[in-house]
Amino acid sequence: MKMKKFVVCLVMMLTLSLTLTACGGGQSDAPSEPKKEVAVFGDTDTEKKTEESVEAETSSEEVVVEPTSEEESVEEPAVEEETTPVAVPTVTGEAPVASEMVMRSLMQTGNNYRLKKAIDKAKSGEEVVIAYIGGSITEGANATPNNKCYAYRSYEYFKETFASGGDNVKFVNAGMSGTPSTIGMIRYDRDVIQKVGEPDILIVEFAVNDGDDPTNGVCYESLVLNALQAENDPAVVLLFAVFKSQWNLQDRLSPIGTYYDLPMVSIKDAVVPALKDGELTEAEFFSDVYHPTNAGHQLMADCLNYMFDVVNYEEASEKDITIPAVPKIGNAFVGVKMVDSKTSDSNVTITPGCFTGTDNAVGGFQHSKDKTFPNNWLKTSTATGDSFKMELTCKNLVMLYKSSNNQNYGKAEVYVDGEKVATLNGYAASGWNNPLLKILFNKKESAKHTIEIKMAEDSEGKAFTIMGFGYTE
């Protein structure tokens, strides 16, 4: 009987033990969690998380369960990398991302050899100069304050992105209100090179100022070539702004960029489709019929910044551009030189006659205290005497003069080698002391010429201001 009870108890204990084992009454080391992919600036950082094993505290002895079969691995759902829909500093190696509107603005990066070189210089701490030349949009019209203009904002982005905010990146704004590339090419040396030397990057913006260009793009191409052919091989970027009327001249000017394989950015391509589909309103981008709002200037900067990012991300072109011997439109003004009352040029002899005054009522730059053409020749309304005479050897000659709404200003006659070629009116009801231009002649061969400027017979008691000249030898 006792033996029978002992057997029953033993069977009951074994049954209880097997029951506890089957129910997992003991805990084992938990298997390691599969590795997890974490996106960091486009790179993949493998992070493996492992839970520590938890020991079970029980009143009975620890029971270790040995698996009877090989455990199957459990796959977690794939973790998608997140992207931020803004232009990103691609020094991290991530492809640049921007809105569709901004991405539309990039017409081409072209041959990026020079621009990549400038970006690499900025990254290494070397001095890099970014210069902007154009009309009133580049000068910063209606940007409040002026450092909210697109030029300064894109310069700041370049500096922060590629030079970590370092002071090795320099900025020059050579925008001048109401002026085309004809005047831009004449003052390029004075307003850019004489201030900081040859730039590493030049942004050219004249697509809404060259409507009255008498050369139909020859002066624009000459300006581009003057920059491209500098000894330091600067990068030249063509920027095409747009008016509220949705007009610009990029159809005329962009073939120059294509011909020389230059980076080109079109604000028209970005903005016009957005205006048509309601993504952007005119009031958001335009402050008037010509100029952007602060938000519009920021959008223009975003378009340039995206171009910088894309070029930085791209593989470098294997070699520099090759400048063809034959221009796309014309190169008649390559090597143009500026002449004003302070110029010392052995090729030029000037006898000012009654044009001995200096006109201080000329326009100024919005981004500095400088006057546009301070070294001028003024014939006052009371001055009498001889005419203005100049002798020089050249192929072509451009004259700059002041337009004023002051009725004291009158007309001047211009003679080349004794022949009257123009009568220029210094008075205009719409004048605002801005420079106007006249191409006096443009010949294929260089020759010695005599220029004479005198007041018209009905304007002898009037004033007239000669702002300067531009010529090529």
Mean pLDDT score: 85
Give the CATH superfamily of the largest domain. SGNH hydrolase
Content of β-strand: 15-25%
Q: Which architecture of the largest domain would the CATH scheme give at its second level?
A: 3-Layer(aba) Sandwich
Helix count, DSSP H or I runs of 4 or more residues: 11
Specify the overall morphology: globular
Provide an overview of this structure.
- The protein has helices at 2-22, 100-104, 113-123, 136-139, 150-162, 181-196, 218-228, 250-260, 267-276, 282-285, 294-313, and strands spanning 36-40, 43-47, 106-108, 128-134, 169-175, 201-205, 235-240, 264-266, 337-339, 348-351, 377-379, 388-403, 411-416, 419-425, 434-455, 464-472.
- The protein is an alpha+beta fold.
- The chain folds into two domains: 96-313, Rossmann fold (3-Layer(aba) Sandwich); 337-472, Jelly Rolls (Sandwich), CATH 2.60.120.
- The strands form three sheets. Strands 9, 10, 11, 12, 13, 14, 15 and 16 form an eight-stranded antiparallel β-sheet that branches. A six-stranded mixed β-sheet has the order 3-8-7-6-4-5, with helices on both faces.
- Helix 6 (181-196) packs parallel to helix 7.
- The longest helix is centred in the first third of the chain and has 21 residues, at 2-22.
List its salient traits.
473 residues; alpha+beta; Rossmann fold; Jelly Rolls; globular
